[in-house]
Amino acid sequence: MRPHVEVIHEDDYIWHAAELAGGEGRASERRLSADEEDGSCSLRVDFHTGWGRGPGIHHATTEFYVLDGSMTYGGRRIGTGGYLYLPKGVPADAVTFAEGTRVLHYREYGDAGFDPVDSLNAPRWEGAREDVIVIDSAAMSWDAVPNPGPMPGMFIKYLHVDPVTGFYTRLVHAQEGWADHRLAHHPCYEEAYTVQGLMEYNFGTLDLGTYFFRPARVKHGHFTSLEGGATWLLRSDGELYNWYTENAWARWGGEAINWGPGGGRMRWSQSAHDLGRGSGRRSEHDRELLGVSLGYARQQGASDSDWLPPGHGPDQSLVAIAKAMDAARLQGGHGPGDHSPGDHGLADHDHGLADHHGDHEHHPLEWGADPAELEHAHERESHNWGQGRAWKPGDPVPAPIVSSLPVRSRSRGRWDGDGL
């Protein structure tokens, strides 16, 4: 599967000779992300000369989106905004790209292989489905997204939706001033390339040429759309459901044996006060927009907590530990008056089994959902051709994944707790 990439700028990646089998011409590619298990990848390709290849069958589901220049498919020429969807195992017509054209190129569930065919009447592969799609997205109108977040101002152009798996490719635009103060995770992966505008979010700054590939279940959010709004080409390998988290924290520790300053007990934490500093990089305007988002949500009846940058407000990890200790005492059968204030040391509060003799009932400590219930039941199968994501409404919601140090740009990543 692909690594978490968030957030990089394409200029931080080197150029390779483009892997475009069966064609004539010269092109270079930047590999934004790649799956070394099955060949899936997301690429930025520049054509240094005119380039083309004849009819054939692609070994991977293949997409092209024209950022600048033009492409011609089956005799139809399309400029900037042109989109071409070529299903795996389905005969496709000849395609060419003009010199100087810049595109986004995606391959899914397969490698760069290409088998030439004599005509479009060549047999499809077993299991192949769907048909070629050719779209001039520049001629499409923007529609309001069905679920824009806590406030209106987000719009969409659907380029492709797989009717079986829910895999979809779309253009998304957030108008200037749109914001979302929440953290979300999804059952599907989500990737995007910024084609216009400026946005801040918890992992950094999205501007022209930035890219992320976020695996399923990684939390993200705290979005603010700035000058001119922001537009992305965005893809997901299944229907995108939003599961929201407030007051996020994480805590980890252990006994250092031969590492760390002096060894001893070491702790890593992204709960608020343990950071020792806030995010520091978000502007006052950003914070104002997140406050507007929160206020709008509350006007609509939401009970969302106040938004605070990391390093501010109560330490939610310590609050959770305190609540768990209270629950343990209560479920142990002791009322609030059963102990004096100093009675909770281990030596003074001996609960050996022999001491109880049925005097009161013990209940299991409730820590929340069983971790096994929060896993994605078919995570591996979701990466197989045509499988999609198995989650559907009513299933247990898989828990978020904490990914604190993904592949990041030298210039765009936010290297503090706001990236939790």
Automatic annotation (TrEMBL):
<dbReference type="InterPro" id="IPR028013">
    <property type="entry name" value="DUF4437"/>
</dbReference>
<protein>
    <recommendedName>
        <fullName>DUF4437 domain-containing protein</fullName>
    </recommendedName>
</protein>
<dbReference type="InterPro" id="IPR011051">
    <property type="entry name" value="RmlC_Cupin_sf"/>
</dbReference>
<dbReference type="Pfam" id="PF14499">
    <property type="entry name" value="DUF4437"/>
</dbReference>
<dbReference type="InterPro" id="IPR014710">
    <property type="entry name" value="RmlC-like_jellyroll"/>
</dbReference>
<feature type="compositionally biased region" description="Basic and acidic residues">
    <location>
        <begin position="373"/>
        <end position="383"/>
    </location>
</feature>
<feature type="region of interest" description="Disordered">
    <location>
        <begin position="331"/>
        <end position="420"/>
    </location>
</feature>
<feature type="compositionally biased region" description="Basic and acidic residues">
    <location>
        <begin position="336"/>
        <end position="365"/>
    </location>
</feature>
